[in-house]
Design goal:
Strand content: 15-25%
Order of helices and strands: EEEHEEHEHHHEHEHEEHH
Distance between the termini: 37 Å
Strand order of the largest sheet: 6-7-8-3-9-10
Shape: globular
Largest sheet: 6 strands, mixed
Radius of gyration: 18 Å
Structural class: alpha/beta
Number of domains: 2
CATH architecture of the largest domain: 3-Layer(aba) Sandwich
CATH topology of the largest domain: Rossmann fold
CATH class of the largest domain: Alpha Beta
Length: 247
């Protein structure tokens, strides 16, 4: 028998005063799936991720993480249940080395899989594993402030992986990267374990079609398309919405 879906949204609404940003969203994400949430500016993509991660509460509806109702749970509870997200750059310690940053993240991540206090050797071994995934182990002794922006963004993902999440949430992970930095970043994302479910947003269609196995298109807070990348690419309604923006 198959287990529960990684994420389930049931009739999810989010209002800010009289403004309705999310309009009754319902969908499920299967374990191991890599789903991109796309849509034009103002579609509600970032608001949706903020509601899922607990940064802002839902106005109505239900959210389940691997079968557990987390609708009213704070972000740290969701972390312990297996949800992770990439941190913004201002969460990095620019005066410390890459390895020191990851060790701090690991020591602060009360993970759902590993509640025991780690030894120093175990922490370093886990840091090695994570940095290898993102192609950053050779940079472990470099100060974060001296690294290229793309490398710093990859380090953000390492922070998100520190709790060994079953579901990883990423909001515009390649925003601000130079063209030459995008493919190495995408390659690093592909190295994440295949049993880790990934839900992300991106305006870069090359990133979307290069990483996602499924696309969900939002428009004014509602789902207007949901399917494989090829099916969504050829959907006339989606093409009309984007008006040649790249889908």
């Amino acid at each position: 028998m198959n287990g529960p879906d990684a994420l389930t949204l049931d009739n999810l609404f989010k209002n800010y005063g009289g403004v309705q940003v999310l309009n009754g969203l319902s969908f499920s994400v299967a374990p191991g799936e890599r789903t991109a949430i796309i849509g034009p500016n103002g579609a509600g993509k970032s608001t949706l991720l903020n509601v899922i991660t607990g940064v802002t509460p839902a106005s109505r509806g239900r959210i389940a993480l691997f079968g557990d109702d987390i609708t009213r749970q704070p972000p740290y509870h969701r972390l312990r249940r297996g949800m992770g997200c990439g941190f913004q750059l201002n969460r990095l310690f620019f005066g410390l080395t890459v390895l020191q940053n990851v060790q701090l993240a690991l020591n602060g991540a009360g993970t759902w899989r590993d509640q025991a206090i780690r030894t120093r050797a175990e922490t370093r071994a886990h840091a090695h594993e994570l940095l290898d995934t993102m192609g950053l182990w050779e940079r472990r002794d470099n100060q974060v402030g001296t690294m290229a922006y793309g490398e710093q963004r990859r380090l953000e993902i390492v922070f998100g992986l520190a709790s060994r999440p079953r579901l990883l949430i990423l909001d515009e992970p390649t925003a601000g990267l130079a063209i030459a930095e995008i493919e190495p970043f995408m390659s690093a994302i592909r190295n994440i374990a295949h049993d880790t479910t990934i839900l992300f947003t991106s305006h870069d269609m090359d990133v979307v079609f290069g990483l996602a196995t499924r696309l969900i298109v939002l428009y004014f807070g509602a789902i207007v398309a949901d399917g494989t990348p090829d099916a969504v690419r050829n959907d006339p309604h989606v093409r009309e919405i984007y008006l040649g923006e790249g889908v």
